[in-house]
């Protein structure tokens, strides 16, 4: 029995659904299901609402008079299953929650599309075609592409409609939120000056330090250091970590700086990456140093950093404005439930 129930959207919807990058089309929403039997969401490619197989055009609800179909509900369920529930077993209670969340998402999407159309926003057919062609190419040709749509219980017109709706919502959000977020240049300069060091990639000097426990005043000690250097280069492919010798300690992958280890830093900076120093006497101990890697200090251009700061600040501000925008979107909307599946 089909029962009708009209509900104010503001009472029905509590969760924020629409974001700045909505998915479009069953082929792109992920898989899932709403059957009461336990399922692995990521392993099911063709799940439908149990008992309603093949009824994709059946109207399950209306949003300001516009129909929401069983197929759209199934697609929304699949997306929620994939993104939120993963391999969770779908109990009867979970299935009801998923159906509710799926409807909430569809209602918000439909209201956004209605508003976009009312404001004169449209989508260039060439953009829709470009997206379809990209999916066709990714599938490996037209035949495989159409077969994939069939396997996913959708059609090319349905896919094109979802792509159109995706760009309608995207443009609406841009017009009503993104384009209205302006970060003053003065603010960007202040944030940059206060934090510019955190955007700098510091100089990195990485060495292998070979320490010899020898008498530095003994001429034979100098020769032993030279002999060890020759062995590392000629027999160990230049890798000090493979050296095993009495009275020698190898410290690999050591980062040195002018502040913390000035002597090692000074001698390392005189080397080219991959080369060894001569015997070094540092604080009364003999050393042999190999420069493993050198990365100079990289200070990005101010304008590039400011652009990044602006992007982060706009994203933060957008996340604050979206809930208010959703509330405004829902204010005058009405949902009419016309199928028992959503009771």
What report would you give on this structure?
The structure is a single chain. The protein has helices at 9-12, 26-29, 70-85, 92-118, 125-139, 142-151, 156-176, 185-195, 219-235, 262-268, 302-330, and strands at 5-8, 59-63, 66-69, 204-212, 248-256, 280-282, 285-295, 334-337. The protein is of the alpha+beta class and 343 residues long. The protein has 2 domains: 5-182 and 317-342, Orthogonal Bundle (Triger factor/SurA peptide-binding fold); 201-295, Chitinase A, domain 3 (Roll). The strands form 2 sheets. It has a 4-stranded antiparallel β-sheet. A 4-stranded antiparallel β-sheet has the order 5-4-7-6. α4 (92-118) packs across α7 (156-176), α5 packs across α6 and α8 packs across α11.
Order of helices and strands: EHHEEHHHHHHEHEHEEHE
Query: In total, how many domains does the architecture comprise?
Result: 2
Shape type: elongated
Full CATH superfamily name of the largest domain: Porin chaperone SurA, peptide-binding domain
Question: Helix amount, in percent?
Answer: 40-55%
Question: Key terms for this structure?
Answer:
343 residues; alpha+beta; Triger factor/SurA peptide-binding fold; Chitinase A, domain 3; 2 domains; four-stranded antiparallel sheet; 8 strands; 47% helix; disordered N terminus
SSE layout:
Layout: E1 5-8, H1 9-12, H2 26-29, E2 59-63, E3 66-69, H3 70-85, H4 92-118, H5 125-139, H6 142-151, H7 156-176, H8 185-195, E4 204-212, H9 219-235, E5 248-256, H10 262-268, E6 280-282, E7 285-295, H11 302-330, E8 334-337
Antiparallel strand pairs: 1-8, 2-3, 2-8, 4-5, 4-7, 6-7
Helix pairs in contact: 3-4, 4-7, 5-6, 5-7, 8-11
């Amino acid at each position: 029995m089909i029962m009708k129930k009209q509900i104010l959207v503001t009472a029905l919807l509590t969760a924020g659904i629409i974001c700045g990058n909505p998915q479009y089309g069953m082929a792109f929403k992920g898989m899932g299901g709403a059957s009461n039997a336990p399922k692995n969401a990521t392993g099911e490619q063709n799940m439908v609402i149990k008992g309603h197989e093949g009824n994709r055009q059946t109207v399950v609800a209306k949003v300001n008079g516009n129909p929401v179909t069983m197929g759209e509900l199934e697609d929304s369920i699949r997306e929620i299953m994939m993104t939120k529930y993963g391999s969770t077993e779908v109990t009867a209670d979970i299935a009801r929650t998923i159906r509710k969340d799926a409807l909430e998402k569809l209602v918000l999407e439909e209201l956004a599309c209605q508003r976009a159309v009312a404001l004169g926003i449209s989508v260039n057919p060439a953009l829709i075609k470009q997206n379809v062609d990209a999916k066709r190419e990714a599938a490996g040709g037209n035949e495989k592409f159409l077969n994939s749509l069939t396997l996913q219980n959708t059609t090319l017109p349905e896919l094109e409609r979802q792509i159109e709706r995706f760009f309608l919502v995207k443009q609406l959000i841009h017009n009503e939120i993104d384009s209205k977020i302006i970060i003053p240049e003065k603010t960007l300069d202040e944030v940059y000056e206060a934090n510019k060091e955190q955007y700098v990639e510091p100089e990195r000097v990485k060495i292998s330090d070979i320490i010899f426990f020898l008498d530095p005043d003994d001429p034979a000690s100098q020769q032993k250091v030279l002999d060890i250097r020759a062995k590392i280069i000629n027999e160990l492919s230049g890798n000090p970590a493979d050296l095993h010798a009495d009275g020698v300690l190898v410290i690999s992958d050591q980062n040195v700086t002018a502040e913390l280890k000035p002597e090692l830093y000074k001698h390392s900076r005189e080397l080219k990456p991959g080369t060894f120093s001569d015997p070094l006497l540092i604080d009364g101990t003999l050393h042999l140093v190999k420069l493993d890697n050198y990365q100079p200090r990289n200070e990005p251009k101010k304008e590039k950093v400011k652009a990044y700061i602006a992007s982060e600040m706009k994203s933060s501000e957008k996340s604050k404005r979206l809930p208010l925008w959703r509330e405004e979107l829902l204010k005058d909307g009405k949902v009419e439930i016309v199928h028992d599946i959503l009771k």
